[in-house]
Fold this sequence. Notes:
The complex is a heterodimer of chains A (116) and B (111).
Chain A: E1 4-7, E2 10-13, E3 19-25, E4 31-38, E5 42-49, E6 56-57, E7 65-67, E8 73-78, E9 87-94, E10 106-107, E11 111-115
Parallel strand pairs in A: 2-11
Antiparallel strand pairs in A: 1-3, 3-8, 4-5, 4-9, 5-6, 7-8, 9-10, 9-11
Chain B: E1 3-7, E2 10-14, E3 19-26, E4 30-38, E5 45-50, E6 56-59, E7 62-66, E8 70-75, E9 84-92, E10 99-101, E11 105-110
Parallel strand pairs in B: 2-11
Antiparallel strand pairs in B: 1-3, 3-8, 4-5, 4-9, 6-7, 7-8, 9-10, 9-11
Amino acid sequence: NAGVTQTPKFRVLKTGQSMTLLCAQDMNHEYMYWYRQDPGMGLRLIHYSVGEGTTAKGEVPDGYNVSRLKKQNFLLGLESAAPSQTSVYFCASSPGRGRPWGETQYFGPGTRLLVL
Amino acid sequence: EDQVTQSPEALRLQEGESSSLNCSYTVSGLRGLFWYRQDPGKGPEFLFTLYSAGEEKEKERLKATLTKKESFLHITAPKPEDSATYLCAVINTGTASKLTFGTGTRLQVTL
């Protein structure tokens, strides 16, 4: 099993450009999450999904959109990138409530995004 | 609002010098407390989950403990390969598996 994979690994954008980050998991997990990690701020939740076709806002959702059309994939979109969105983005997945170890989240390797 | 505070921010140990990392939390109802290890340039790697006060978990040189207000990650006789940032996170009983993270303790173990 590859676990949680993220593409791309690194990207440079100009202000105003758009892009989509892809997260894929092969563990048949119900829940998926997008976080951003900034120095001194810790990991902060952007959006999450508790099942295929569902999404919900996290702590810092502004400027981002998400979609979960397939259970194994969770996409994070930036419609008009801003320098404040320069960060490292992590995707995670968990089995989901009601399942053994349902709330343990497993993380991908991250995407480093630089917005100029 | 859930809060997680980790201390110290950074810790430098010599190989074999045991110590503890602290994670203090404020949460209306604790569903679980998690410890992760993060190496530079990589994603967090799951270590432990603790669910109730008094619970302990061990893995190699690491032992995690939980009280009603804080958790400790004890590192016994650390080796240089234990160098990493250790993250603590909590889940509230009413927040649909959303983790609230601390900012981490950066551990360096030298020879």
